[in-house]
Design the sequence.
């Protein structure tokens, strides 16, 4: 962390102590040079406030610097130490706040959860790494340092290109390798501070997510992927979802019987809404392995719980079976049967394009669904089993964004999403 290189990346699994270590380093640097400025930046301001300002930073001060006071200004969101050094906290999603923070120079900048941060934003932040802060011990100025941490996304991400491949993500030219360093930190390295149940949870994740959050490895770049983990993370919105103007429950059936469902495909059940802000939101993933009596009740209960507008179900498999199950579970439930006249890829491409541009956001964490989505490519589904969750997801947002997806508003689709009209059949 104190090497001669300018750029240091800590990458690895979840809860391995990466953010804690870098935050501690920033405090050490702040205390070493009076009047120095440092910044902790994340893509969303609310995330840096909840994860760092109100959680990691107080823990660092209590455990590592018990005799040092730090006043946190909750108007401009910075911490000031007795020697007048400051650590500023900001989100790159707020134009006014970003301009204020990036109007100053810093001796060190920390990009927290940089898998969510666009490369262009990283390049903007690096222009402010310019403060000459003299050390109090008379040994010259602090070395300018840029710190990064992340749960490693795919190998297409700029962090992998810079720190592992050693090349510029844009022009692919070699970089000065001596100016970049990285270290892997995984949950097993921090096992003394984690409950055993947490590691067991990570071990039970689907393979793709286990690779990222437990093993701390960059994911193989799936060529032609329609969804990426970093794209989903960028637009995820966990708190304070907008009011919904429409909600649907989408079902992708498998034909399972009431018994012996262990080896059957799951019934994809996704609840999704169209917010008053014009964006779509995943609200629940209720996918299950069950017979009609069970999954019909799950669907209709979700319909009532969310005050949904209708249930949407694929009718290719079993004809009118889905509608019969729904009406048996709850009479007079508004239902719309949809027919798959195109392949999975053709149906998924426009929905993936909407998600890429932030028009579809995940209102929570849905690891199994996200694993399936990231295995959807332009050449087909590359996952291990049937993508029932992903199929239900596509049906849900096809219903919510019907005019766009079905080609009745191609001008919007072309201008806003830059999607080839050949995707729309």
Sequence:
């Amino acid at each position: 962390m104190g090497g001669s290189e300018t750029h240091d990346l800590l990458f690895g699994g979840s809860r391995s102590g990466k953010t804690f270590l870098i935050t501690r380093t920033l405090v050490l640097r702040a205390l070493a040079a009076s009047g120095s400025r440092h910044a902790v930046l994340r893509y969303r301001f609310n995330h840096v406030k909840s994860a760092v300002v109100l959680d990691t930073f107080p823990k660092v001060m209590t455990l590592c610097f018990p005799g040092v006071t730090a006043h946190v200004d909750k108007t401009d969101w910075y911490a000031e130490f007795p020697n007048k050094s400051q650590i500023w906290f900001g989100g790159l999603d707020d134009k006014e706040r970003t301009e204020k923070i990036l109007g100053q120079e810093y001796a060190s900048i920390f990009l927290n959860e940089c898998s969510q941060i666009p490369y262009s934003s990283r390049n903007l932040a690096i222009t402010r790494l310019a403060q000459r802060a003299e050390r109090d011990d008379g040994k010259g100025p602090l070395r300018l340092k840029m710190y990064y941490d992340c749960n490693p996304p795919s190998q297409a991400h700029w962090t992998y290109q810079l720190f592992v491949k050693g090349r510029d993500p844009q022009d692919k030219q070699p970089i000065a390798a001596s100016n970049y360093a990285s270290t892997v930190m995984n949950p097993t390295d921090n096992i003394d501070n984690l409950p055993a149940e947490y590691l067991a949870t990570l071990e039970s994740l689907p393979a793709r997510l286990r690779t990222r959050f437990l093993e701390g490895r960059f994911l193989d770049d799936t060529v032609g992927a329609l969804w990426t983990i970093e794209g989903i993370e960028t637009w995820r919105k966990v708190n304070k979802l907008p009011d919904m103007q429409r909600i649907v429950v989408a079902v992708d059936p498998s034909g399972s019987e009431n018994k012996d469902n262990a080896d059957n495909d799951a019934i994809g059940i996704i609840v999704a809404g169209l917010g008053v802000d014009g964006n779509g939101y995943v609200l629940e993933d209720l996918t299950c392995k069950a017979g009609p009596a069970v999954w019909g009740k799950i669907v209709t209960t979700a319909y009532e719980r969310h005050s949904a507008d209708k249930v949407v179900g694929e009718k290719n498999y079993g004809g009118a079976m889905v509608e019969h199950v729904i009406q048996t579970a709850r009479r007079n439930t508004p239902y719309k049967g949809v027919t798959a006249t195109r392949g999975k890829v053709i149906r998924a491409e426009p929905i993936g394009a909407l998600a890429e541009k932030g028009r579809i956001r995940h209102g929570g964490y849905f690891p199994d669904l996200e694993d399936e989505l990231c295995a959807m490519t332009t050449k087909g589904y590359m996952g291990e089993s049937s993508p029932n969750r992903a199929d239900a997801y596509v049906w849900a947002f096809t219903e919510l964004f019907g005019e766009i997806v079905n080609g009745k508003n191609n001008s919007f689709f072309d201008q806003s999403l830059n999607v080839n009209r050949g995707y729309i059949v």
Observations:
- The longest helix spans residues 45-64.
- The domain at 229-423 is CATH 3.30.420.240 (Nucleotidyltransferase; domain 5).
